[in-house]
């Protein structure tokens, strides 16, 4: 992290080394794939509570992600308060109504048709937790002096991926939601102007009658998403 104090380069032995055989390595990679391919974005949540400790542990995992110059330019606001979730839903739906009324453009709306989305975002109040991801565009010392953060979008995106994987590993479902614009979240959650909200993640258990769009199961094959040289 960044400090006013002089921080010199101080190498230490690698503290955590994962030495496994080639055979076990392949098995571990395949097992993780099998776990992650069971991850589904859901919009039908159960009100079943989720312990705060589960959210805290998942956020700790997100905090282990790599970041530019190790500045860790992220903040995660975890919300379970019903009144605050209701406020976020109201303001998000106001933006969504403008989006679906023409703000998005015909091509974008058509692309969303197989997903089955609309301006109603009831998951924002039903899911027991909302996690708002903020990207810290710059940092500040106690006297207000700014310092620069580096590779902020890349760092925050990696940490968010860690978070979603951790929540899934804990047996929870998620939905990433990105109303545009999202500046209302700074006011609602008392976050500084240096932070930009990037998404809302609804977190909880799927409802008994939860569905996913059939098109969501259509994933590009390996040969389309990768090249080997």
Question: For the terminal residues, how far apart are their CA atoms?
Answer: 36 Å
Q: Any idea of the CATH topology?
A: NADH Oxidase
Strand content: 15-25%
Q: What is the element string, with H for helices and E for strands?
A: HHEHHHEEEHEHEH
Average pLDDT = 94
Structural class, by secondary structure, is alpha+beta
Low-confidence stretches: none
The rough form would be described as: globular
CATH class: Alpha Beta
Helix tally equals 8
CATH superfamily: NADH Oxidase
CATH architecture: 3-Layer(aba) Sandwich
Spatially, the strands of the biggest sheet line up as 1-2-6-5
Q: What would you note in describing this structure?
A:
This protein has helices spanning 22-36, 52-62, 82-103, 106-112, 123-126, 152-169, 184-189, 222-225; strands at residues 74-79, 129-136, 138-140, 146-148, 173-177, 195-204. The chain has 229 residues and is of the alpha+beta class. It has a single domain, classed as NADH Oxidase (3-Layer(aba) Sandwich), CATH 3.40.109.10. A hairpin with a 5-residue loop joins β3 and β4. The radius of gyration is 20 Å and the shape is globular. The two termini are 36 Å apart. The model has no long low-confidence stretch (mean pLDDT 94).
């Amino acid at each position: 992290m960044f400090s006013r104090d002089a921080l010199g380069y101080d190498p230490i032995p690698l503290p955590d080394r994962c030495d496994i055989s080639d055979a076990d390595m392949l098995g571990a990679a395949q097992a993780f794939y099998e776990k992650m391919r069971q991850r589904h974005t859901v919009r039908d949540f159960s009100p079943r509570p989720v312990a705060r400790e589960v959210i805290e542990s998942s956020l700790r995992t997100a905090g282990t992600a790599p970041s530019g110059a190790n500045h860790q330019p992220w903040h995660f606001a975890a919300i379970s308060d019903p009144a605050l979730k209701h406020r976020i839903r109201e303001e998000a739906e106001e933006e969504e109504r403008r989006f679906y009324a023409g703000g998005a453009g015909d091509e974008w709306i058509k692309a969303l048709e197989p997903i089955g989305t609309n301006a109603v975002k009831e998951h924002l109040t039903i899911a027991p937790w909302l996690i708002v991801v903020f990207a810290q565009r710059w940092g500040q010392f106690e006297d207000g002096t700014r310092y620069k953060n580096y590779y902020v979008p890349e760092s925050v995106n990696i940490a968010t991926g860690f978070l979603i994987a951790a929540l899934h590993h804990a047996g929870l479902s998620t939905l990433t939601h990105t109303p545009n614009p999202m500046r209302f979240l700074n006011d609602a959650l008392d976050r500084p102007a240096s932070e930009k909200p990037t998404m809302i993640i609804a977190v909880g258990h799927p409802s008994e009658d939860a569905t996913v769009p059939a098109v969501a199961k259509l994933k590009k094959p390996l040969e389309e998403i990768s090249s080997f040289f």
